[in-house]
Records
---
Amino acid sequence: MFLNIMFLLAAGATIGGSFLTATSKNLMHACIYLLLTLFGVSGLYATLGADFLAATQLVVYAGGVVILMLFAIMLTGGVREFVNKFGIDKVASMGTVKTYSIAGFMVVIMSFVIMKILAPIFKSYAPGELPGFSTTVEKIGTLLITDHVLAFEISSILLLGALVGAAVISRPGRTR
Amino acid sequence: MNSTVVSYLSQAPGYGFLTSKLSEVLGFDATGIVNFLIFFIVTLVMVNIMAAIGGLGTYAERKISADLQMRQGPNRVGPFGILQFLADGVKMILKEDIIPRQADKFMFHLAPFLCLVGVFMTLAVLPFSSGLALTNLNIGVFYLLGVSSLVGVGIFLGGYSSNSKWSMLGGMRGASQIVSYEVPVTLTILSVVLMAGSLSFDVITEAQGGFPHEWFILHNPFTFIGFFVLFIGALAETNRAPFDLPEAESELVSGYHTEYSGMRFGFFALAEYIEVFVVCGVCAALFLGGYKVPFNLGTGDFLVKAFPAIEPMLAKQVGNFLQLGAFVTKTLALYYVVIWIRWTLPRLRVDHLMVLCWKYLTPIALFNLVGCAVWLYAFEGKSIWYLIFKSGAAAAGAHH
């Protein structure tokens, strides 16, 4: 009962936040709504028994990514009125014939994949029981350094590459 | 151990009585309702007490600064001026709520609440005693790091939405400072997590003892350094002097809350003082033994032994009050040090702040983390006092 209410609240926050993110005209406001969405997703994780994932979602997205996004928007001056001199909403041209045809192709492929995934759910829908709540920290830790150690190491190399790249780019140019 | 405050209070005889009575009256199992009510009441009490502590923090700040500067401080309202914070609160509420015309209204309204919500969310896992922790998540430390980052968003938004250059600079400084100092703080907390083997505050506290030599701060040389890294990082994360660059009053008027007035400003101030209490509590729980009382007085077993007729729950309550006293004493001692530092040290420069974080604290924290791991591996998690005692006993000719 209580978990159901929390799940519905989290789902509502996710859906409402993402809708507002997409429709908001002000980039800064969109970023705040994105924060709401990410909190909602974290709530979904928490109600589905993935406690560690929920906290990671908060630490990574609320703490790091949203603040970096806000910084980027502020420093690039992203908040502008998208209204032209006649007072009509400006709609940027979304692409060319090439991009539209590629996007249409991708939509067809993605819809096939999604239908393939959803088909068994619609055929025989039986509400499954969630397993009893248990801590996931130990399991995730054990899996990360046993079965998935390759992915773990490769992602750390990716981060190292990003770090070195940032250092190279932001380094003041040497005068010859 | 008790996973929530409800599971602690459910051991009391009144709980079963209340539940069965309510079930009879309502006609269905009332356990959920009673649990919800207990949570609601305890949370309400906790939030109000913490708000009062935040208010008293401003009083303590003024009184201690007056003491350090040989002044009197507030001494008119109430005995020793202790009701000054209530007078201030009334003043804040009655003030006109001014919003700059060019401000972004939505974010201007949102920013103080984000700060306050982020701080109050951290209270859910703060271990006041073995019974009085709202909930004992097994990812408690991680959760605390996650939700406290909302404060950074609030400070940034407050600075940005005011549409004033001082606020903007303050907000930028605040956000960059909080994001940067999260790195050494998290690495240091990680070393403690490594020692205790859990992310839960309860397990970390129970891994320590009541006496100073059983605390993690004196466990080995690496944790001793780690405590100071954590404390410095916590000062920077709460924007306290010498890291109060976001509200540097000599250059930025008042930083990110320059344009705020009335209770909105009050919320920022309240959030800051409560956050200082929370991070001091975290430092105490991680390194200074948290709620542990010497001789295991905190469990209440001594009362049961001395007076066998006593109700076991009553003995536990007494033990919990001792634990609460130990935790609050350690936290307030750290609180005093925070205020003391604020009125002693001059403010850092922005580039010095970043140099301190990235060139000193982060490498030291990394070194500590590796050092703790090596210590755990080499000495099987024994503290330095144990090793000294053992070698001393061996030198004296003891066999083992």
Note: Chain B has a mean pLDDT of 84.
---
Amino acid sequence: MYKTIIKFYMDYRKEEVWLNEMASKGLSLHTYSPFRYVFKKTEPGKYQYKIDLLDNLPSHPESENYIEFLDENGVELIGTHYRWILVRKLNDGTDFNLNTTTEAKMSFYKRYLQMVVPIWLVNIMFVLTNLLSFHSHGQGVSMFAVAVNSFVALMLGIMVFKVYKMYNIVKTESSIYE
Amino acid sequence: MPESKNSGALTEAVLYIMISLDQPLHGYGIMQKVLDLSDGRVNIGAGTLYGATNTLLKKKWIEPFKGESARKKEYALTELGRDVIEQEYQRIKEVKNNVERFRRGEL
């Protein structure tokens, strides 16, 4: 039995929690294409899910090496979205984390910020230039587009703030712990 | 051996990965063995292991090992890797001795 859900997550951690909750209820993510989650009925808690961010697109040789390494070691690729990958492994009762050292965690957060901050800034720029143009011309500006972009900019801003905070916590820890 | 001039400590993950390779293992075997050796305390993630093995291969502390399984890559310690572990052992012994002196109130 399959179940398809269309959903959009801004926060990859919430998405991860959701996928693991579904799996614990016996609905394991089977395939994924952007925003389209197809679940398959399995025994509850059969798999654990994780989301990782690559340095490059999944088709890049370096990413292919990494995905092959994961696969050889029991971590199966379920789907990709831009540089994001969704993976799972059979639940063996131990925690499932890909990046376990402070160094690996820091580099994950850095990759995230390097990817999202430019998109965030472009959104802010778009909103500001449109508002300025509206102010001086009073027309030719889609207020709907401005509203959508303001909303996206706000959501991205919240994520950037959250991830930056986590990055700083790990960074402080890294001066005393590995 | 230019590496031997580095007096810094190895990370715990790297040292555990290296000593787990006394006999050749594939990645999943390394993760399981380290978990086992540390009584479940050190759980190395596959992403972290991928980065660490690549660096260790580059430094020639470990090398690819042609095992029975053609599908899974296995890794083995090199002589250089064994030397690095020996130096790390000396460093840990020194630290241990000093902490013991601290506990006896000798510092």
Note: The longest strand of chain B covers residues 62-65.
---
Amino acid sequence: MTASTPLTQRKAPSIPFLHRALQSHSFMAYLYILPSLVVLSFVVAYPIFYTILLGFYSTPAISPDRYWVGLSNYIDLLRSRTFWETTQNTLYWTIPSTIGAFLLGVPAALALNQPLLGRSLLRSIFLIPWVISTVAAAYVWRWLYHSDFGLLNGYLMAWGIIQRPLLFLDSTNLVIPSLVIVNVWKTFPFVMVMTLAGLQAVPSELLEAASIDGAGTVRRFFAITLPYLRNVFLITFLLLFISNLEHFTIPWLMTGGGPARASQIWAIDIYTTAFRGLEFGLASAYSTLVFAIVLLFATVYVRLLTRREGVEA
Amino acid sequence: MHRRTFLRFTALSAVSLLATACSTAGTAPTPTMDSSPTPTPTIPTPTPKVTPQTTELAQKPLDLSKWNPDYVREIAGSLPTFDTKAFVSNIVPLSTTGELYYWYIGPAEPDPQITKDLDKQFWEIWSSTYPNIRTEKQSLTYADMLDKIRTAATGRAAPMVATMPIMWGVEFAAKGHLAEIQLEEFGFSENDFWPGALKSCKWQGKLYGVPTNNECMALIYNKQLFRDAGLDPDQPPKTWEEVVTFSKQIKEATGKYGYGLVARLNHGNTPFRFMPVVWAYGSGAFDEAEDNPTYDQVLINNEGGLAALEVYYNMFVRDQSVPSAALTNTNAENTDLFFAGQLGMYIGHPSEYAAMVDRARKATGADRERAEQLLANIGYALLPEGPVRRAAVFGGSNIHIFADHVVRGGKVDRQAARAFIAFRCSPEWSIKAVWTASNPGNLQAFRTTWMKERLEQIKFLEVTTAMLKYGVPFPVVPESPQIMNIIVPEMIHNALTRKMTIKEAADDAAEKIRALMRQRVS
């Protein structure tokens, strides 16, 4: 290239590329989300990467250094009896909590979708458990359940239903069911709101036509409403299930994982391993394992959802 | 030089000691105190200053072997005054220029007004004493501080100086995050502090902190419930076996709970109340209750450990004389039960009486009447003893200097740090900074007139102060938080829920402690 070459000619090869790129919608889209990506890479990607990395190290409380142990933390974890007990507790907590929220939330949504007197007020009232602070709710329920001066035991004994207080939170058998009731109470409005939103998409003409054709309420629900709600249910179930798998606040504040670890679920176990036991390497491996399990559930459900959408399309 | 001056100055106390020595005949500790009304704590009275140079008598260390409620009262006020400014000027010149980043657990909203006022006063006087040391302070809560300070130290953003609860320092010392210190560089000597407190500041023979305050718990009991149960209200239980017996008797006779057992998982309240029983029976996580512990051998499942666990088992499972919710209760629930007249005895903090007075004042109508009746019937006693010893957890805080490589800016201003620690741990601020909540770390503060004022204002203070003699620090090993917060409470739960037998639960705990110690990198 000589000095006399015109400027336009020299830059010519790059311009079409830039031009094409700038014209490309995807390129512009990437450009728009770049700031978010940069922020997320610092506050999400880096901690995830670092946690995964730390899972391969031993971090003894006695030393400022960390020591490479490969998969030892994972092996120790999977071999430990307490991990499997905790997993069992986590499932015992998650599955009934999720199903319970649906059993309460869906009928509530169906009822509140009807033209009732004071419907808006009722919808607001039903939302109260969802909007109040989880910490406040946990403390209030702890007092309600309290074995010595709880309101529930007080009433049950006053009515002569029981002779001795029920140990809602202090019995290894009753603790998880008692916590599940609190969680169902706290999360059913979420299912209700999502279902109510889904119900707005059900065409009223279809329901009216089915009604004219002689279909009853139950038939209309299963033949028309339910198929329309399927995607909403899947998304809601997925979100609630994952959120319950990772839940921490209610059991931690109400029982601290006790009695005798009967309400020790994954999140509490990870927290105590890291911040009470100072085993950050083991806790990181634990977190990574739970992260992978949650990711697996998320992937399965998202795939299921996508496939159904494809079929329906 | 500065140390000598300080010693000369504090020696004024010898006059009073000589005067009281004859009457202090080493009498046995009086376990109970009367329940006459007590004034509300107020700001300490300003006293005329005497510079260290004005004292001529040699300092005489406190006789810790005589430590009991009577001795605590006798020595209070024997050192008429103390000029902190003159004292610290001998350590670091008052004209020193520098900067200091300091973290501590400061007053919180529920704290009494006096605590907030004294904190404010502390900072004002510090600024006027060293006007050229720019100080940046951060007041944190107990719940937040440990995680924040760990993160900060790992991220090379630790403060230069921090006051931390007694059990935390060793973790940072073991990791090389703290700077080694000598007491003499702050004008102190070993005689100025409880041996147990100094033990908690040491790691592998080196000193990493100075005790700021120390406290031990006591047994609080309801004399009316004792009367109702046919027990002598002036004879609280002297042994843990008596606690079990009295608890059962109270439950059977009154229907109220006898003893406030606390065993919540992952909660500090649990080991603070269980380890005194373990130590009383001659056990421990290790040999931490001995004078020179080595922490080499796990003792939790020895005969003493089993006996201690049996004390809990008998009250919770066999006699059912303790709250049914003991496994999830914290001490807060016990305080409520006690305040409502539903609990006979519990282990409580020195400041709990003041808190109950505060609650009674806020009550109205019949509640107030009941609260006042309760206050009139409260008794404080030394924690019961076991076959081997009487023991309580030695609590409190220590002040530390962080190592250069973990602090913000990479360099600690050692002169500023020295000036601050000398000031904060001086007899004056050692006592004023913890007026209602604890006891001074500096033993000389017990001789001041401020201590005398506190004894007049804070009821039962002499009992909780007397317990210091029996204080045992938790094992000074970095693994202590895991042992005390996880392993010990789980052991109690395994036994009390009958998931395991007492022996199996203790053996399981011992194995967990051993496994934890094996993880150490040689």
Note: The interface with chain B takes residues 58, 60-65, 67, 142, 146-149, 165, 167, 169-170, 172, 254-262, 264, 268, 272, 275-279 of chain A (CB under 8 Å).
